[in-house]
Amino acid sequence: MVYLLLAIASSTVISLFMRIGEKHIKNQMGMFMANYAACIFLSLLMKEQSVGFWGEKVGLTVLLGSITGFLYLAGFILMKYNMKHNGMVLTSTFMKLGVLIPTLMAVMVFHEVPSILQTIGIILALVAIVMIHFEKEAVQSGGKKIWLLIVLIFAGTGDSMSNVFEQIGNPEAKDVFLFITFLAAFLIALILALASKTRVSPVDLFFGVLLGIPNYFSSRFLLLALGEVPAVLAYPIYSVGTIVAIALIGVIFFKEKISKKKGIALGLIMLALVLLNL
């Protein structure tokens, strides 16, 4: 349970650092570049297998890892944009709601049949999305709420790639897959940072490293937690725990307001996340 709590804390800190860095970051690509450089360093430092071990299906490992790296970086960019326009609470909630994507992929691509509870969870999640998207303030925000759906798609698709790799890749090359993922995200961010006319400042690099540490350990601690806590309990606790923690931080420290309708929608999403992971 300790590892699970650490995973929740790490995931929460990612959103917190992103929110704090809003007013200080001049070149966000420079920040993301430093973030993934830190992830690469930590993945090499904490690896259980040699990165030199490629095993079978090398090309597929590189391809899937590269796609995942792109999706991770795009998800972070969309997360930062949404936090600015839609707040930390809703942004983080919709990113966690991305669990809908791997669920639908499992049904449509890998022909897995969802349980009755998972089906109810999907319906509740869709109802919550409609409630938030068509809220009065959403209509007045100039279409900014649509980006919540976009970040949901990218975050969920990024999460799905691990399952895709498990299904069609070489499971023995997991460490290589993770390394390629971080490396691809780093290289894309590096190219975009160099192409930008904005100078990468030490502050950008500092916040990037700060972001990279919880970014790496949120995944690592969750994997360690799954070795102690059944997945049927770990995933719902991790998802809902992160949402609750971020919501409390958003309301208490950043004075974000949650309307009654939005509060009901968030409650439905939390319930949906639990059902989707059962």
Give a concise summary.
This protein is mostly helical.
How would the blueprint of this fold be written?
Blueprint: H1 2-20, H2 28-46, H3 58-86, H4 88-96, H5 100-108, H6 116-133, H7 136-140, H8 146-168, H9 174-195, H10 202-226, H11 231-252, H12 260-276
Helix pairs in contact: 1-10, 1-11, 2-9, 2-10, 3-4, 3-8, 3-9, 4-8, 4-11, 5-8, 6-12, 11-12
Structure, explained:
It is a single chain. The chain has one domain (2-276). 78% of the residues lie in helices and 0% in strands. By secondary structure, it is an all-alpha fold.
Radius of gyration: 18 Å
Question: Which structural class do the helices and strands define?
Answer: mainly alpha
**Which regions have little confidence, pLDDT < 50, spanning 5+ residues?**
none
SSE ordering:
HHHHHHHHHHHH
Total number of domains: 1
Count of helices? 12
Biggest beta-sheet profile: none
Mean pLDDT across residues:
78
Helix proportion: over 70%
| First-last Cα distance | 18 Å
Instruction: Write down how many β-strands occur, each being a DSSP E stretch of 2 or more residues.
Output: 0
Strand content: under 5%
Basic shape: globular
